């Protein structure tokens, strides 16, 4: 079994498209390419424009025998479907054989979130006696007050800051630009980091395109390092929850809705393309209200 050489070229073009045009993360691109490559290997050098809906249905039956989770199968279908949409747009194929296929129905899971007290406890236990510690304190404070994705935060440059207006410009999925807001307390933390801490981490000259958050070699701090720092502080306070940087984003959205924020406003602040992605947080808020009711009302 092998892969048609022309198909390899088209897959390489698609990979470049995901990177340049869609601005997908390396992890996402790797998953898409692997899913599509597995499909092409199964197709055994069959030309892309000769693969029909029945072939794709046969492939789904094939992977259905491998005990993949529904989530994994759904991702594989989405990867191949996106590839064929790209091929159709580029007029390489005449139709998309995946269009008539529905993915497995996935159970809706509510996002995890932290209470305000839990987050404040985490922030208070970050040791700021070292430059790296102070940097980490600013990072997690910013995640909490802005609802940024970790990739958006690690991608910040000095030119993205407009602290006079308490604003930061971020680039989300698909390079979509939006403005997030920061309160005065957070702004002061950022300014102190820039003016008094940044050069203690690295003595590299600051330019508009310099990364805001750096490691001790002066290069951009990577997502993995941020996750590692968060894991350490979570373990230090013995918090019995699985906490990731994205949980801060969930907590940000949940708290806004609990305090009466309009759903459209939350959608804008999070950078969601569809309001259906934001509506999940209304269920989280309702769940929390029911929990408070059950524990507080004498008739509950």
Q: What can you tell me about this protein's structure?
A:
With 300 residues, this protein is mainly alpha-helical. It folds into 2 domains: 5-89, DNA polymerase, domain 1; 116-296, Orthogonal Bundle (hpI Integrase, Chain A). Helix content is 57%, strand content 4%. The chain is built from 13 helices and 3 strands. It has a 3-stranded antiparallel beta sheet. The longest helix has 20 residues, at 70-89. The mean pLDDT is 87.
The CATH top-level class label of the largest domain: Mainly Alpha
Strand content: under 5%
Residue-averaged pLDDT: 87
- Could you give the order of strands across the largest sheet? 1-2-3
- Helical run tally: 13
**Approximate helicity band:** 55-70%
The count of β-strands is 3
Quaternary status: single chain
Question: What is this entry, summarized?
Answer:
By secondary structure, this protein is mainly α.
Task: Throw out a few tags for this protein.
4% strand; 2 domains; 300 residues; three-stranded antiparallel β-sheet; single chain; DNA polymerase, domain 1; 13 helices; globular; mainly alpha; hpI Integrase, Chain A
Outline the fold blueprint:
Blueprint: H1 5-20, H2 26-43, H3 53-64, H4 70-89, H5 116-124, H6 131-146, H7 150-154, E1 161-162, E2 167-171, E3 177-181, H8 184-201, H9 223-236, H10 245-258, H11 263-270, H12 275-278, H13 280-296
Antiparallel strand pairs: 1-2, 2-3
Helix pairs in contact: 1-2, 2-4, 6-8, 6-10, 10-13
């Amino acid at each position: 079994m092998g892969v048609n050489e022309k198909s390899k070229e088209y897959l390489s073009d698609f990979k470049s498209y995901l990177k340049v045009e869609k601005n997908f993360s390396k992890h996402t691109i790797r998953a898409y390419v692997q899913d599509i490559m597995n499909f092409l290997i199964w197709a055994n050098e069959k030309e892309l424009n000769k693969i029909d809906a029945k072939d794709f249905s046969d492939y789904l039956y094939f992977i259905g025998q491998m005990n993949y989770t529904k989530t994994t199968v759904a991702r594989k279908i989405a990867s191949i479907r996106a590839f064929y949409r790209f091929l159709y747009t580029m007029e390489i194929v005449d139709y998309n054989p995946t269009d008539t296929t529905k993915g497995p129905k996935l159970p809706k899971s509510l996002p995890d979130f932290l209470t305000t007290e839990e987050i404040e406890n985490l922030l208070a236990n970050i040791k700021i006696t070292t430059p790296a510690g102070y940097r980490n304190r600013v990072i997690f404070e910013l995640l909490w007050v802005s609802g940024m994705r970790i990739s958006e935060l690690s991608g910040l440059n000095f030119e993205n800051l407009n602290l006079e207006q308490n604003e930061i410009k971020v680039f989300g999925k698909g390079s979509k630009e939006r403005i997030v807001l920061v309160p005065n307390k957070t702004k002061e933390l950022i300014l102190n980091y820039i003016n008094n801490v940044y050069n203690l981490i690295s003595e590299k000259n600051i330019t508009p395109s310099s990364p805001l958050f750096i490691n001790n070699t002066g290069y951009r701090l990577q997502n993995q390092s941020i996750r590692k720092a968060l894991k350490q502080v979570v373990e230090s306070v013995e918090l019995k929850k699985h906490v990731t940087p994205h949980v801060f984003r969930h907590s940000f959205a949940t708290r806004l809705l609990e305090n009466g924020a309009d759903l459209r406003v939350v959608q804008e602040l999070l950078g969601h393309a569809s309001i259906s992605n934001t509506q999940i947080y209304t269920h989280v808020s309702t769940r929390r209200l029911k929990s408070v009711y059950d524990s507080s009302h004498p008739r509950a």
